[in-house]
Amino acid sequence: MKIPKPCKTSKTWIAAGTLGLLSVTATAQAAVAPEALVGPVADYKLYVLDNLEQLVTHTEDFTAAIEAGDLAKAKALYAPTRVYYERIEPIAELFADLDVSIDAREDDYEQGVEDPDFTGFHRLEYGLFHDASTDGMKTYAQGLMADVEELDSRVQALTFPPETVVGGAAALMEEVAATKISGEEDRYSRTDLWDFQGNVDGAREIFELFRPLAAQEDADFVARVEDNFDDVEKTLADYRLDPDDPQAGFESYDEVSDADRRALTGPVTVLAEDLSTLRGLLGLN
To answer: Which end of the chain is more exposed for a tag (fewer CB within 10 A), N or C?
Structure first.
C-alpha cells in the first residue's frame, strides 16, 4: 500500500518520522551540532518529494503518449520528464534495482538494446529517437510507469541520512563530468543538456541548504563553490531555446561547440572536487 505523503508544510513530521537515525549517524564526528542538520535534511526531503510528485505526473503523460502511438508528443516529453529524476538521483540510486530498471543504458547489458532486461528511459529513448517509432514500446512504457510509482512509494518512508544527502551534491556533479559532458547519456535524443541542468539543479539545492553551516566552517570555500556554479549555469544559459523561459529547454547537444564542452569541463570538475569535501567540512565522513 502506498504510504500517504506528509503535509509539505510540516517539517516536524519529517524530522520526527523520517530522521530517526540523524543523531546516531551524525553525532560521532560532526563538526556542526547534529540538531543543526535536521532542518536542511528535512528541507531536502521536501525537495525530493516535490520532484517525485512531478516525476510521477510527467511520466504518466510521457508513457500515455507512447501507448497512444503519438511519437511527436512522446519525443517532446522525454527530456522534460527525465529532469525530475536527474535532480534526485542520489536518493533514487539508494534503490539499486529501480535505478537500473529506470535509468540504465544499453552499455550496461551484454546484448545491448536487444537484451530483454534493458528497460526504462533509455530503452524508450532508443525506440523513439533511433527507430523513430512507438511500436513495441507499450510494455516498456508500462514498466517505467510502475517503477516510478514504486520509487515514489519507497521514498515516502525513507530515512535521509545526512551524510548521504550532503554527499549527493558531489555525486551529481561527478555524474555530469563522467557522462554528460561526453554526450554519452542521451546519445539518441541529444537532450543531454536537460539532464545536465537537472544534475546541476539537484547539486545546487543540496549545497544551498547546507551553505550556512558550511560558511561557518569555511567562507572562502562557499564563495568558490558559488562562483563555479554560476560559471556552469552561465554556459548552460547560452544554449537555452528561450532565455526567459527555462521550461522551453535546450538546443540539441550536437550544437554545443567543442570549446564550450571544454569550458564546462573545468568548472564541473572543480565543483565535483570541492563538493566531495563538503561532508568532511561538516564532519559527516
So the answer is: N
Which pLDDT belongs to residue 155? Answer: 97
**pTM to 2 decimals?**
0.87
Per DSSP, the residues of 86-110 read: HHTHHHHTTSHHHHHHHH--GGGST
**R_g over Cα of the chain:** 19
- All 3 cell numbers of residue 102? 529506470
Could you report the per-residue pLDDT of 241-267, keeping only the tens digit for each? Answer: 998 888 889 999 999 888 888 888 888
User: Residue 95: its pLDDT value, please?
Assistant: 97
What are the φ and ψ backbone dihedral angles of 240, each rounded to 5 degrees? -75, 140
3-state helix, strand, coil in the chain (%, to 5): 70, 0, 30
Amino acid code (one letter) for 106: E
Domains of the chain in sequence order? 37-159 (1.20.1420.20), 161-284 (1.20.1420.20)
Instruction: From 111, 120, 8, 109, select the one nearest 53 (Cα to Cα).
Output: 8
Q: Give tens-digit pLDDT for 103-119.
A: 999 999 999 999 999 99
